Amino acid sequence: MTLWEIKNKQSASIDSLDPNLMPAVFERLNEMGFSSGQAVQCLRRSPLKGPVVLQVGDCVYSLEQSIASSINISLN
């Protein structure tokens, strides 16, 4: 399952990032805390395939579909 498929108010753990991501994007996601084992919660799903708003630790991020679809998760 990917982060793009997470439902509103649902929690999950990050399994892995797609190794085919551009190196700069892969590095930036790691810097933001999107690393293996990290807990993540969906705060809001935007309508019409808009970005998904997520909480990772104490930070809140908004990710578009192309990025969120590259992050593999396991539901808690």
Give the helices and strands, then pairings:
Blueprint: E1 11-17, H1 23-32, E2 39-45, E3 52-56, E4 59-63, H2 65-68, E5 71-75
Antiparallel strand pairs: 1-2, 1-5, 2-3, 3-4
Q: If you had to describe this structure to a student in words, what would you say it looks like?
A:
- It is a single chain.
- With 76 residues, the chain is an alpha+beta fold.
- It has a single domain (3-75), classed as Ferrous iron transport protein A (FeoA) (SH3 type barrels).
- 18% of the residues lie in helices and 38% in strands.
- It has helices at residues 23-32, 65-68; strands at residues 11-17, 39-45, 52-56, 59-63, 71-75.
- Strands 4-3-2-1-5 form a five-stranded antiparallel β-sheet.
- Strand 3 (52-56) and strand 4 form a beta hairpin.
- The mean pLDDT is 96.
Give the key terms.
SH3 type barrels, 38% strand, globular, 2 helices, alpha+beta
Summarize, please:
This protein has about 80 residues and is of the alpha+beta class.
Second rung of CATH, namely the architecture: Roll
Strand line-up across the major sheet? 4-3-2-1-5
**Poorly predicted tracts of residues:** none
Total number of helices: 2
Q: In percent, how much strand structure appears in the residues?
A: 35-45%
Average pLDDT, all residues:
96
* Shape category: globular
Number of domains: 1
Instruction: Using the CA coordinates, give the radius of gyration.
Output: 11 Å
Share in helix: 10-25%
Class per helix and strand makeup: alpha+beta
| Helix-strand sequence | EHEEEHE
Largest sheet: 5 strands, antiparallel
| Strand elements, count | 5
**Cα distance spanning the termini:** 12 Å
CATH topology name, in short, is SH3 type barrels
**CATH domain class name:** Mainly Beta
